[in-house]
């Protein structure tokens, strides 16, 4: 299974041609991740087959972030407490990573604004310009249709630009002999 597939959500979203919102470029996304200290995963699941579980597992073992899981139907995820809502968290998360249906995204954006989050991150496959407007109007940075796991790994040497692990930790390209 490729990383892109493992992070994808089956959502109804506008065609690429209908998109008017422009998100942060790679340098801005890198800056967001560098500033982030705590991440709340909304829609986190205790099911290993779900993309949110895969991302949570990666972030738990490969990132410096303090992780908080939001799922009103779960008590624990990866041995950590799960919270019913962002408002129930013991901290204000810097970044809210969202694994929810398209129609739920504006409500999650409003909740992220209400708790004082700095960034709303909609996972790969999630695009909702109304949710982006809610967050940006309140001064919250927005990233849409990007996988937090993939972006973190890419910026920290774990992924080739094509999306796979090269096993090489270097900024130099290998020269292939002919």
Automatic annotation (TrEMBL):
PANTHER family: COA-BINDING DOMAIN-CONTAINING PROTEIN, CYTOPLASMIC PROTEIN-RELATED. InterPro entries: CoA-bd (IPR003781), NAD(P)-bd_dom_sf (IPR036291). Residues 32-126 form the CoA-binding domain. Pfam families: CoA_binding_2 (PF13380). This is CoA-binding protein.
């Amino acid at each position: 299974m490729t990383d892109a597939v493992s992070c994808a959500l089956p959502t109804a979203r506008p065609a690429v041609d209908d998109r008017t919102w422009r998100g942060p470029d790679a340098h801005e996304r890198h800056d967001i991740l560098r500033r982030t200290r705590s991440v709340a995963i909304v829609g986190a699941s205790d099911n290993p087959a779900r993309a949110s579980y895969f991302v949570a597992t990666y972030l738990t073992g490969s990132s410096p972030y303090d992780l908080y899981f939001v799922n009103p139907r779960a008590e624990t995820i990866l041995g950590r407490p799960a919270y019913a809502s962002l408002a129930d968290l013991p901290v204000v998360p810097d970044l809210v990573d969202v694994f929810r249906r398209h129609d739920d995204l504006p409500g999650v954006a409003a909740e992220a604004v209400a708790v004082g989050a700095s960034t709303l991150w909609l996972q790969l496959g999630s695009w909702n310009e109304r949710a982006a407007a809610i967050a940006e109007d309140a001064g919250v940075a927005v990233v849409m249709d990007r996988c937090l796991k993939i972006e973190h790994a890419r910026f920290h040497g774990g992924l080739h630009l094509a999306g796979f692990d090269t096993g090489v930790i270097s900024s130099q390209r290998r020269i292939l002999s002919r």
